[in-house]
Amino acid sequence: MIQTSKRLLSYIKYHRQRFWLGASLLTLATALELYSPMIAKQLIDQVMTPAYQTGNLNGDLLIVLLMSYFLLNLIGSLLRYNSLLLLRKMSNRIVKRMRNDLFSHMHRLPISYFDQMPSGKVVARITNDTEVLRGNFYVSVISNLLSNFIQIIGAFIALILLNRILGSAMLILIPILIIWQHLYTKYASRYNLAMREYISQISGQLNEFVQGIAVIQAFQKENQLYTEFKATVQKWFLAGRKYLLLDSLVAWGLGALLRNVTILLVITTLSAQFLGGRMALSAGILYVFIDYINRLFDPIDGFVQTITNVQQSLAAGKRIFEFADQDPESKQTTPFFIKKGAVTFSDVTFGYSDEHMILNQIDFHVSPGETVALVGHTGSGKSSILNLLFRFYDPQKGKIIIDDQEIARCNRQSVREAMAIVMQDPYLFTGTIASNIGMNRLEITDEMIKEALRQVGASELIERYDKGIHHPVVEKGNEFSSGERQLISFARALVVDPKILILDEATSHVDTETEHMIQQAMDVVKKGRTTFMIAHRLSTIKDADQIFVLDQGRIVEQGNHLHLLEQNGIYHQMYQMQAEQL
Ligand SMILES: Nc1ncnc2c1ncn2[C@@H]1O[C@H](COP(=O)(O)OP(=O)(O)OP(=O)(O)O)[C@@H](O)[C@H]1O
């Protein structure tokens, strides 16, 4: 908690001037407002009481005091307004910085982090949690704590100056309030944290629902997901109810009770000070005493809300820092240079977790320009080999060497830049056809993009739209067929002219005609490059120079198509089965 508060406060250092100016204005505003009951006291004791007793009204003094009261409060309001403005500006800037930092941190995290973390939770860290800090912490918490603190101290000093004994006696309120706040904080934080956790789960479920809406509807999973969603909302509701009950009881019920009892005790004590039928103190003092007691309790009531805000902010801060503290991928600086594209896997063993290995002692060598096909039953480890080659993950044991350089020792980005990958389900970004192919790299011109589209046989996409390759792409390219999305991603791979190309099951989801079109595009893209491909249809890999047959994370057969058929093993069986299905 203390650690989180310190870290949250440390962001203020970027906006020191704004903060100190805001805090000083707020202190001044609170102090000025605190002085106003003293003017009211003068008004009662020096103008109204004598006027009643003598029948003469001191008009000049009345005007001076009324004007002073008015001016004091006006200046106080203006100062408070300006200080809040400064603190809000500071808060917006801090959250802007945090969001940018978190975003850039996010894409330095290893892919394995996202395997365990639902995307909704990551989104919630960068949007909701930072928003809590913006609204609650950097404005409400800081300004309330500061002005409440000054108001409480000021009110106590004023009460002691007005009546030393009674004022000092009221210091007894301090331990009572501390115990009260302690108990409240203890129980409220439990429910508060639970509520935030459920909110985070709700946003995770929503995210999953929106992303998978097509599959959900196709498999009529709406009811099941709705039931799960309702259950989480119910948990949030129950935690919220407990929190509300506690909050109402402590914040409002007990607060009002304590305030009224204090006022009653003070009035009783003061009214006992009668001397010969006359009060020993003025009406002004009685008024000012009650006013300061109210001013003492106002921040105390507000304090409970502030504590709620502090807790919400600390919980949000804790989650943000947990995310920010995730170790980013180690950053090697050695640049990776690719000359020919020779790939060697040497005794590679790998698992997504250290306990369970998925690939075992994988050994192979691929010469520059060769086409390699990976085949095997589902879950045999084909995609995992490509994940390692592209350095989405690093192996636990063994080496992956490209052109004499061990990729695990080289800068990840430069390894990835040397290759191009065409994924099973190509992802199109919001932008245009051109930006999805050139990926906003300045060295790639419109002409190069058009040429790439022509080469993969997608000239039609250039002519179809008024804006040509600058036709907008929205919603992950839903407007395009899966074959067209595939062709766009081939053009994306082709335009960077990579030495190594990775094709993940590019033809498994399309019809025969599109497959033929994609097959032709693949032949164009593969030319002159080392290509790794996974294809479930064995007919598409007949021409591969090497075929690796995987079974339970091991290469069990290896060779070209004819060689593997002769071996009469798994490949032969798979080929026969597919031939029978045709
Ligand atoms: N991100 C991941 N985290 C944990 N385990 C994973 C992950 N990705 C894959 N696996 C596991 O690794 C094993 C091999 O998966 P892989 O995707 O490499 O197989 P594959 O041969 O490509 O299968 P398919 O043909 O179905 O795509 C599977 O048992 C799978 O459950």
From TrEMBL:
Keywords: ATP-binding, Membrane, Nucleotide-binding, Transmembrane, Transmembrane helix, Transport. It comes from the Bacteria. One of its GO terms (molecular function) is ATP hydrolysis activity. Residues 20-312 form the ABC transmembrane type-1 domain. Residues 343-577 form the ABC transporter domain. The chain crosses the membrane at residues 20-40, 60-81, 137-159, 165-185, 244-267. Its main location: membrane. PROSITE patterns: ABC_TM1F, ABC_TRANSPORTER_1, ABC_TRANSPORTER_2. GO terms for cellular component: plasma membrane. It is found in: Cell membrane. Pfam families: ABC_membrane, ABC_tran. This is ABC transporter ATP-binding protein. It comes from Enterococcus sulfureus ATCC 49903. The lineage of its organism: Bacteria, Bacillati, Bacillota, Bacilli, Lactobacillales.
